[in-house]
Amino acid sequence: MTIGTFEKQIIRTIRSVIAVGPDATVALHEPSFKGNEWKYIKDCIDTGWVSSVGKYVDLFERKLEQFTGAKHAVAVVNGTAALHICLLLAGVKAGDEVLVPSLSFVATANAVTYSGAIPHFADVDHHTLGLDVQKLDHYLKDIAILKHDGCYNRRTNRRIKAVVPMHTFGQPVDIESLIELVHHYKIELIEDAAESLGSYYKGKHTGLFGKMGAISFNGNKIITTGGGGAIITNDSEIAKAAKHLTTTAKIPHKWEYDHDSIGYNYRMPNINAALGCAQMEELPNFIKSKRELAKKYRSAFKNVSGVHLYTEQEWARSNYWLNVLFLGGTVSRDDLLESAANEGLMLRPIWKPLHLLSMYKECPAMELETTLILQRQIINIPSGPTLG
Ligand SMILES: *Cc1c(COP(=O)(O)O)cnc(C)c1O
Fold first, then answer.
1. Does any ligand 1 atom lie closer than 6 A to the CB of residue 225?
2. Is the pLDDT of residue 204 over 70?
3. CA–CA gap between residue 88 and residue 208 (Å, rounded)
4. pLDDT given at position 1
């Protein structure tokens, strides 16, 4: 395959920043285990506490609270489960609609569906890559009716119970404007903070602006527990309910098995939490390294025409989980992806917009122009915690 000069230059620039030879294989995001991971996991195995009982789950939750500033953290099996529980605890009921960005990982919409509700797709903003609040405002003026029990969609007659902004690749959305909007329309705010552990909006950690936020610790996220997630909240009642619902709604008792509702087996196992404890110790270094890497990419791409690198907003402090390169019209995205893949350099296009997925294409949606533009323009470039 012949490759254009623009594409060649992009690949060369990426390689120059991450300082690897022309043939070295580079993943998009590999986990790093250089701390106490082995020690804590060995402790689980040596003591036999690998599953639903053990000290590491509590310890991991306290570390998350300390780091994010949340009053409470509840560790669960994955980020999707965390979102599911957040939606249930926010009072989302079967037949409700929940506003979600179309430009997100499929889990955001799936969690809505698990709760019996219907995803309602909203457009995103060029500047934040997250929900376009101004556009949502205009849209709601058109379709929303306020009733005594909340906001209704006048086209479908369904209640719009919640909105789930997502902090894309660690970049915080314009959450203050969104809060104003949801207050006006009596819509619950739940943050999909799956990608934004270590990202702040005006000094406050993402995930803490609504009632609850959901974090993911999947293998490709900024820290990993193998698989895992957490709910963070400042509301003690919600935290208690989240713990209860994610531990099969069992009433605590020394020997009796009594459950007061249909709960979920969503508790994070101790062995995963052990990995998480070690990863939390390294998190500040990961963030430092990622911010450093973003800076290096930024200066290297300054002189490459036709592309630019995403930079955090002035009110944001991002974890730069995955770096984002915008491709101008002169660059062929697919040629670039293919020639990079051929030489072992992993670049990745953004997700297919959710409103185009077969199971969601009948769902309500606003006009989604920016989503469709960004979907063609954005690629992620290697961003692992050891590359910085
Ligand atoms: C990773 C991710 C999730 C889900 O997390 P899992 O732990 O994989 O279930 C949800 N939303 C977004 C935006 C994600 O990136």
1. no
2. yes
3. 17
4. 47
Q: Residues near 240 by Cβ (< 8 Å), separated by ≥ 6?
A: none
Q: How far is the CA of 216 from the centre of ligand 1 (A)?
A: 6
204: helix, coil or strand?
strand
The neighbour count for residue 111, using CB atoms within 10 Å, is 28
Please give the pLDDT value at position 3: 66
What average pLDDT does the segment 193-208 reach? 98
CB 103 near ligand 1, within 6 Å: no
- Nearest atom in ligand 1 to the alpha carbon of residue 218 is 7
Q: What length is written for the chain? A: 388
DSSP 8-state assignment for residue 158: -
Could you tell me which residues are beta bridge partners of residue 75? 230
Neighbours of 127 (CB within 10 A): 13
Residue 179 pLDDT greater than 60, yes or no: yes
**Ligand 1 pocket check: which of 216, 246, 275, 321 to mutate, most ligand atoms within 8 Å of Cβ?**
216
Question: What's domain 37-281's architecture?
Answer: 3-Layer(aba) Sandwich (3.40)
User: DSSP 3-state helix, strand, coil percentages of the chain (rounded to 5)?
Assistant: 40, 20, 40
Identify whether the C-beta of residue 327 lies closer than 8 Å to the C-beta of residue 32. Answer: no
Ligand 1 centroid distance, CA of 63 (Å): 20
